[in-house]
Design a protein that fits this description.
The chain has 305 residues and is of the alpha/beta class. It has one domain: Metallo-dependent phosphatases (Purple Acid Phosphatase, chain A, domain 2, 4-Layer Sandwich), CATH 3.60.21.10. It is 30% helix and 22% strand. The strands form 2 sheets. It has a 7-stranded mixed β-sheet with strand order 1-5-6-7-8-10-9. The chain has a 5-stranded mixed β-sheet with strand order 4-3-2-11-12, covered by helices on one side. It is globular and about 45 Å long. The chain starts with a helix and ends with a strand.
């Protein structure tokens, strides 16, 4: 009887956490998921080995990075690709028309339900529009929990190829900044990915600044303003992850998941949660980071007509 009650409690907790991070939830999709973190990470690293990892050359010594998350595209939405109600398109257009920006980030949860449609809509929103966009900056993405529900991870792989990788920015004066992107779609970073992360961070001293991007927010939200872990990752993994961030002198960890703005300073590291871009948000916003001698950031509201 106790075991049964424990199982029911875990299921209730899982559903509650899902409800806290998404207004439109298909519970079956949360539970029925055969995508494994270790297998995905192996695929991501194989892709990197064959194709290399991105390097941005000749960036200004001070430049901008844009970050958003949780666009939650669904074929049920009446979104016209690159139209007036395509929020991700508006976001990437703002980035590509900023002369100091070098790339954009999407911190996970591109889709909201099963099927390929949401990934295709995301891809279409990010296609370069030579009429309305001044330059063709890339958008680097990580996989979120909704992107693995209903066994959707193969669609993420089809369109975006990898979720465990680095991006190096080389500036005109020879500074180097490191951006590390992680897969936390199953609520864990997994053994192999954490070993890979530790190896990357062992070279932290080679870089001016270091940033980490992962979907699942680590702390409780402002409804319970503490630095207590939010149970989005196993608790021992959360503590180990935060220790690694602090001991490696990471400047900032960028996350999403809870559809709200949040910031925490913990162990000398700035943790920032980006707002959501999905249609349920009346005034969506995104993050703009200024990376130079110091790192600054501000939330900007998306211009909606």
């Amino acid at each position: 009887m106790k075991k049964r009650l424990h199982i029911l409690f875990v299921i209730s907790l899982t559903i509650g956490l899902g409800l806290s991070s998404c207004n439109r939830l298909d519970v079956a999709g949360m539970v029925i998921n055969r995508s494994d973190t270790e297998e995905r990470v192996a695929d991501w690293l194989d892709y990197n080995a064959q194709n290399g990892e991105p390097v941005i050359e000749n960036a200004p010594d001070e430049y901008h990075i844009y970050s958003c998350s949780d666009s939650h595209y669904s074929e049920r939405d009446s979104i016209v690709p690159q139209g007036e109600n395509d929020r991700l398109y508006k976001y990437i257009t703002a980035e590509r028309n900023d002369p100091k920006a070098v790339f954009a980030i999407h911190a996970g949860d591109m889709v909201n339900e099963n099927g390929e449609a949401g990934f295709r809509m995301t891809y279409d929103a990010l296609v370069y529009d030579s009429v309305n966009q001044a330059k063709n900056d890339p958008c680097f993405l990580v996989i979120g929990n909704h992107d693995v529900y209903f066994d959707c991870a193969p669609f993420f792989k089809q369109y975006f190829h990898t979720s465990t990788y680095t991006v190096t920015v080389n500036t005109v004066s020879g500074y180097k900044d490191l951006f590390i992107f992680l897969d936390s779609g199953n609520g864990t970073h997994g053994k192999r990915q954490l070993e890979w992360l530790e190896e990357k961070l062992s070279h932290r001293e080679d870089y001016r600044h270091c940033f980490v991007v992962s979907h699942n927010w680590l702390f409780r939200t402002s409804y319970n303003y503490t630095t207590t872990p939010a149970a989005n990752l196993p608790q021992d993994e959360q503590y180990a992850f935060m220790d690694l961030m602090s001991n490696s002198n990471v400047d900032m960890v960028i996350m999403g998941h809870f559809h709200m703005r949040e910031q925490r300073q913990f162990g000398g590291v700035q943790y920032v949660m980006t707002d959501n871009l999905n249609e349920d948000k009346v005034t969506p916003s995104y993050l703009v980071m200024t990376v130079g001698e110091k790192v600054r950031y501000a939330y900007e509201e998306l211009e909606m007509e």
